[in-house]
Amino acid sequence: MNIKIILDIGNTLIKLAHSESGRLLDVQSFESEENLLNWISQHSYSGGIVGSVKELPVRLLDWTREQSNLLLLNSNTPLPFKIAYKSPQTLGSDRIALAAAAFERFPDKNVLVIDMGSCITYDLLTAEGVYHGGAISPGIHMRFKAMHSFTASLPMAEPTLNAPLIGYDTQSSLQSGVMNGVQAEIECMIDQYATNYKDLTVLIGGGDNKYFDKRFKVNIFAASNLVLEGLRFILEFNESQ
């Protein structure tokens, strides 16, 4: 058996997949480390990798320390590309994994990889195989929560696939501002990157991309589970060394 476990511990969800023969299998999500550990205790695997954007909860940290065949992604993990970020120790594991997914999919190309989760991240990997960094902005749910939490009377609104340009009431005005604003932000960012990096390839993923994948006016490659994909590639690279 040569099944590997791939774990992406995000701000709101824990994503898990199996990796076998270079493929991601059985992708699923957990809302708590307890549910994850219960699942893990009932399955077998021969190694794996963990990427976490936050400090691991005690029980999950204890479990990782017990696993001699588990790779914990951090700023010292060997990578198939170079990091030019000035503070690599502060670079989130999710952004490292996204760059790895871009590198595997589009070697020798300038790639802007965009991830739409709790935050929207923009990460640039150049054709020379160098990761330079990018940008972080609030995700759509964070924007809705901020307007509700930091004002006296604005209600909590939800994402929608069909936000009007001109809101006809408070709810639709909030949706217009967030949904159309995010679309405009991403398209403008892509345009600025494309001006500076010729023949730019754009790769976009993350759970909230589902609200936008039919709306963007630029050519992009949409993909799901990019962080898991990048973690798998980093694991395979380290196992081949």
Structure description:
The chain is of the alpha/beta class and 241 residues long. It has 2 domains: 72 residues, ATPase, nucleotide binding domain (Nucleotidyltransferase, domain 5), CATH 3.30.420.40; 168 residues, 2-Layer Sandwich (Nucleotidyltransferase, domain 5), CATH 3.30.420.40. The protein has 6 helices and 11 strands. The strands form 2 sheets. A 6-stranded mixed sheet has the order 6-9-8-7-10-11. It has a 5-stranded mixed sheet with strand order 3-2-1-4-5. Helix 3 packs across helix 6 and helix 4 packs across helix 5.
Strand content: 15-25%
The succession of helices and strands, N to C, reads EEEHEHEEHEEEHHEEH
Widest sheet: strand ordering: 6-9-8-7-10-11
The CATH class of the largest domain is Alpha Beta
Helix content: 25-40%
| Terminal Cα span | 21 Å
Number of strands: 11
Task: Name the features.
5-stranded mixed beta sheet, Nucleotidyltransferase, domain 5, alpha/beta, single chain, 241 residues, 6 helices
Task: Chart the SSEs and their pairings.
Blueprint: E1 4-9, E2 14-20, E3 23-30, H1 33-40, E4 48-52, H2 58-66, E5 70-72, E6 82-83, H3 93-105, E7 111-116, E8 119-125, E9 130-138, H4 140-149, H5 170-196, E10 201-205, E11 221-222, H6 226-239
Parallel strand pairs: 1-4, 4-5, 6-9, 7-10, 10-11
Antiparallel strand pairs: 1-2, 2-3, 7-8, 8-9
